[in-house]
Design goal:
The complex is a heterodimer of chains A (130) and B (141). Chain A has 130 residues and is α/β, with parallel strands linked by helices. The radius of gyration of chain A is 14 Å and the shape is globular. Chain A starts with a strand and ends in a 16-residue tail after the last helix. The C terminus of chain A is likely disordered. In chain B, helix 1 packs antiparallel against helix 2 and helix 2 packs antiparallel against helix 4. Chain B has a five-stranded antiparallel β-sheet, covered by helices on one side. By secondary structure, chain B is an alpha+beta fold. The model of chain B has no long low-confidence stretch (mean pLDDT 89). The chains are: A alpha/beta (130), B alpha+beta (141). Chains A and B meet through helix 2 and helix 3 of A and helix 1, helix 2 and helix 4 of B.
């Protein structure tokens, strides 16, 4: 596994440590979608501070991760997009629509803490348990 | 800007593109070379990302090919040149391929216009059934 995934309380934290191939990104996606059920996690943080390139494939995979995790009933925050990476992404039109982002891990955790766990009553996402 | 011909290329290195791992290798090679030329951090990221998109296009459309990365000098400016070469099916309609949002592979379709925006010079030569050669350059200012 190219990206270690840590369980911290109700959250999963995936910290990208090095350059990722397409296969690594897909493995990360599959692992997170699986582990969010296994650990009954309410939130997922993907820390991309170490990523020096966010091309169309990486960007699409991160968006897919966030959407799949939401379908599983949890929230995803992407943290640590570097200034030059943000600059390049905008030039490419990669805006990560519908995906929550935060400055760094600390802000990401604060964001998830603020997000109320979604119950079944509000008509929004009900948590689907395995 | 069109790609000026007959510009000598130095420190050329070739990266065969056959798998997704080669995409990473190509963009790291390009970043290292651009760093030697003294490009800014945001330019390094733009160059590496452009190489990533070009290498992925090779895999997606031609399955295999080659990237050549080198240093160019012209009119007192130095820059990095990236050539993506394949013998794939070729691009049927180059003008269309350059339209934002157009893609025949079901991918995001940002590839080529995006690369053009990230680099200074950009040129596609494509012949149906023969393959595609894309040259992109970025000059250090």
């Amino acid at each position: 596994m190219a990206v270690p995934i840590l369980k911290q309380g109700a959250y999963l934290i995936a910290s990208v440590q090095s350059a990722l191939s397409d296969a690594d990104l897909l493995e990360l996606r599959n692992e997170l979608v699986m582990k969010v059920g296994k650990f009954r996690s309410r939130g997922v943080i993907v820390d991309v501070t170490a990523m020096d390139v966010m091309d169309s494939f990486a960007s699409r995979t991160l968006r897919d991760i966030a959407h799949m995790i939401r379908l599983r009933g949890a929230e995803t925050v992407i943290v640590g997009i570097q200034p030059e990476v943000a600059f390049t992404m905008v030039q490419l039109g990669l805006t990560l629509e519908g995906v929550s982002t935060a400055l760094d891990l600390e802000e990401g955790l604060a964001y998830l803490d603020r997000e109320k766990p979604k119950g079944g009553g509000d008509g929004e996402t009900a948590r689907l348990r395995e | 800007m069109a790609v000026e011909r007959h510009v000598p290329v130095k420190d050329e290195s070739r990266v065969p593109i056959r798998s997704d791992l080669d995409i990473v290798a190509a963009r790291q090679r390009g970043r290292a070379l651009a760093q030697r030329l003294g490009f800014s951090d945001s330019n390094l990221t733009m160059i590496a990302t452009a190489i990533s998109e070009l290498a992925r296009n090779i895999l997606l459309y031609a399955k295999k090919g080659e990237m050549t990365i080198g240093i160019v000098e012209n009119n007192g400016l130095s820059g990095i040149t990236v050539v993506a070469w394949d013998e794939g099916p070729g691009i049927r309609d180059v003008d269309r391929a350059m339209e934002v949002g157009y893609s025949t592979s079901g991918s995001l379709g940002l590839g080529l216009p995006g690369v053009k925006r990230l680099m200074d010079d950009f040129e596609i030569v494509s012949r149906q059934g023969r393959g595609t050669t894309i040259t992109a350059r970025k000059w250090k200012r």
